[in-house]
Amino acid sequence: MKLTNKHNLPETIINVLRRPQYSKGVAHASATELMSSPRVVQLRRLNWDDIEEDASDMVWSLFGSALHNILQHGKGESHIVEERLFADVDGWRISGAIDLQELTPNGVVISDYKVTSVWSVMNAKEDWQRQLNIYAWLVQHCKNMPVAKVQIVAILRDWNRREAESRDDYPPSPLTVVSVPLWPMDVREDYIRKRVELHSDALLNAEIGHPLADCSPDEMWEKPTTWAVKKKGNKRATFVSVEKDKAEQKAQEMGAAYAVEERPGERTRCDKFCSVSPWCEQYKTYKESMNVSAQEVDGSAD
């Protein structure tokens, strides 16, 4: 991977970012890779030497690494810090590095520490459930120990005291603990086996030059195109639908003062956060279709 420094960050920061902080060990996939898009994982592997990431986009990862030192200094007698577990599943070796395991009379409490945003805490992230339940499976499978609870310890980089004082739904502290649903053991195992199958198929297809399976809408953070009914002059919509006909019908019912506005969909991760989009045929096809749609709209307006 090529590390760029577009904003001229200090050399000390660049040096830290250049030095590897993470290893999945001798394994086919880590927990985070396992729950990631198989297409993205393989495109990253195939194009690793050409991928560019800017240092400014990796700054928050430094704070995540710094948390490891805090855990080491703060661990108690019943704590296991940063243990990586390995397990073989259907011919694949998977691994997971667990930030903190606390041994209690009721079982192991697993905590994963994250430097994240307020939005992520206020809007439950499915990936947190998946990651922590993979960890829970590893603990129970590898150690034969029951898991009592899984949770995220979130350090909120954009927390605002004024918002916390005025809103009931806002995190009350810049450090907050988020309880995550713990799946039954058989559900955890079924999820892991399905992910291993998907990634195994993707690796084989990549090796023999066959097309990779497409990313899912969830993996692309896809937002569909919607149609908003708005009173002329107002910014907020009165009615929103993914079906243009329904929106137009609603506007007619509401009268001449209302109009329909198109709100184009997007694939947020692909457009803004995916490092392999330059090599992704699925993304290329999507962008071409969006350009054609835009040209059709422009043509109809002439």
Outline the structure in words.
This protein has 302 residues and is α/β, with parallel strands linked by helices. The chain folds into two domains: 2-208, Lambda Exonuclease, Chain A, CATH 3.90.320; 222-301, no CATH class. 42% of the residues lie in helices and 25% in strands. The chain is built from eleven helices and 13 strands. The strands form four sheets. Strands 2, 4, 5, 6, 7 and 8 form a six-stranded mixed beta sheet that branches. A hairpin with a 7-residue loop joins β10 and β11 (239-241). The radius of gyration is 23 Å and the shape is globular. It starts with a strand and ends with a helix. The model has no long low-confidence stretch (mean pLDDT 93).
Helical fraction = 40-55%
Query: Class by helix and strand content?
Result: alpha/beta
Give the strand tally. 13
CATH level 3 topology of the largest domain: Lambda Exonuclease, Chain A
**Order of SSEs:** EHEHHEHEEEHHEHEHEEEHEEHH
Low-confidence stretches: none
Mean pLDDT: 93
Euclidean distance between termini CA atoms: 46 Å
Sheet with the most strands, sense and barrel status:
6 strands, mixed
- CATH class placement of the largest domain: Alpha Beta
Shape: globular
Number of helices: 11
| Alpha-carbon Rg, integer | 23 Å
Total count of domains: 2
- Mind telling me which CATH architecture of the largest domain this is? Alpha-Beta Complex
Strand content: 25-35%
Features:
13 strands, alpha/beta, 6-stranded mixed β-sheet, Lambda Exonuclease, Chain A, 302 residues
